[in-house]
């Protein structure tokens, strides 16, 4: 089964493995298989589910809503997000304005078939909307009972600090940040994680397997496997391209004996590695088949020996990205679709 951790400085517990449906539901996987995979996650002990209105242009929320229909709502932690363009993508169909946040939460609740979400997240930082307006809107969403907690995704250390101060002033909690983080992508370690730990904010990390590269299935000097994420633009092929260099793929192959020594598969090692960081509350994983769930769940509760951590660092250090300046490049400087 899956262990639980507290989300930020709150009383909310979430599973160490969060089921995310970014590139699977209403995209890679038909609805029947998607629902079966969610049910497999529930059977394996996962109770925390993450989606976003923008995934498959709102359709992924609909699929998740169908999958959790009939489940005991109090036993689930449902997360969704707002920011990226949805619908016809008009001038107010994106960003973190008060209008879009309220349109967003109302639409998400309807699609998910729930009265509230446990965590509502700013999917990026909106440079075109005053942060005071954004945080006031989130405060009102919480006061109306439409979300219990507020989080963000890919905010810089400075943005987290300003957002947390406003949240405290408005008497609600900013409890989480959702950044990319893996043994190959460590840009949050220098600034974001120390700031978050100080502020009582947890990380819910996406792509702990570096878009599948840390699974070891991509081999140096070889074509990418047919049907893999690297061949599918809808599945984030542009995200994985940064890791498909021969020096990176050669370094990743050095993890195989390390995983064997730890008694783990390479995907399990990658997920367990991010969970060793005490500021990480949960690792986001997706699945296109129910049988993938059991393998991912086995990473929960794993304690990696210091020698294993050192060996991973030595194998990947020459190719791992650590530059904290990368955290400033994620949120668009102008609102998408406007």
Automatic annotation (TrEMBL):
Q: Which domain of life is it from?
A: Bacteria
Q: What stretch or stretches form a coiled coil here? A: none
Task: Identify the residues that the record assigns to the NADP-dependent oxidoreductase domain, covering every copy.
Answer: 17-315
Keywords on this record? NADP, Oxidoreductase
The cross-references to Pfam families, in alphabetical order and at most eight, read: Aldo_ket_red
InterPro entries found in the cross-reference section: K_chnl_volt-dep_bsu_KCNAB-rel, NAD(P)_OxRdtase_dom_sf, NADP_OxRdtase_dom
Query: Which family does the UniProt entry place this protein in?
Result: Belongs to the shaker potassium channel beta subunit family.
The cross-references to PANTHER family, in alphabetical order and at most eight, read: HYPERKINETIC, ISOFORM M
Protein name per UniProt: Aldo/keto reductase
Q: Which organism is it from?
A: Microbacterium terricola
């Amino acid at each position: 089964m899956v262990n639980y951790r507290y989300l930020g400085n709150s009383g909310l517990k979430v599973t160490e493995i969060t089921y995310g449906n970014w590139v699977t539901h209403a995209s890679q996987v038909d609805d029947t298989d998607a629902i079966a995979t969610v049910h497999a996650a529930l059977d394996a002990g996962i109770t925390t589910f993450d989606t976003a209105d923008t995934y498959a242009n709102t359709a992924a929320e609909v699929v998740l809503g169908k999958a959790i229909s009939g489940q005991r709502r109090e036993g689930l932690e449902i997360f969704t997000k707002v920011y990226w363009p949805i619908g016809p993508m008009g001038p107010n169909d994106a960003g973190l304005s008060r209008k879009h946040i309220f349109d967003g939460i109302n639409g998400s609740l309807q699609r998910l078939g729930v009265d509230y979400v446990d965590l509502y997240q700013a999917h990026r930082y909106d440079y075109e909307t005053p942060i005071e307006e954004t945080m006031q809107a989130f405060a009102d969403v919480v006061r109306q009972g439409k979300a219990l907690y507020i989080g963000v995704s890919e905010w810089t250390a400075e943005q987290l600090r300003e957002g947390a101060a406003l949240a405290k002033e408005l008497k609600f909690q900013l409890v989480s940040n959702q950044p990319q983080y893996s043994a190959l992508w460590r840009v949050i370690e220098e600034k974001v994680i120390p700031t978050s730990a100080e502020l009582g904010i947890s990380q819910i990390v996406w792509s702990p397997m570096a878009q599948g590269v840390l699974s070891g299935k991509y081999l140096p000097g070889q074509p990418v496997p047919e049907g893999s994420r690297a061949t599918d633009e809808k599945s984030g092929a542009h995200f994985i391209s940064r890791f498909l260099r021969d020096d990176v793929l050669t370094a990743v192959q050095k993890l195989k004996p390390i995983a064997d020594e730890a008694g783990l598969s390479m995907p399990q090692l990658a997920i367990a590695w991010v969970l060793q960081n005490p500021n990480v509350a949960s690792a986001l994983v997706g699945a296109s088949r129910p049988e993938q769930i059991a393998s991912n769940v086995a990473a929960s509760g794993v304690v990696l020996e210091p020698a294993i951590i050192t060996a991973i660092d030595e194998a990947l250090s020459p190719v791992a990205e650590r530059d904290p300046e990368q955290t400033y490049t994620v949120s668009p400087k102008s609102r998408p679709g406007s």
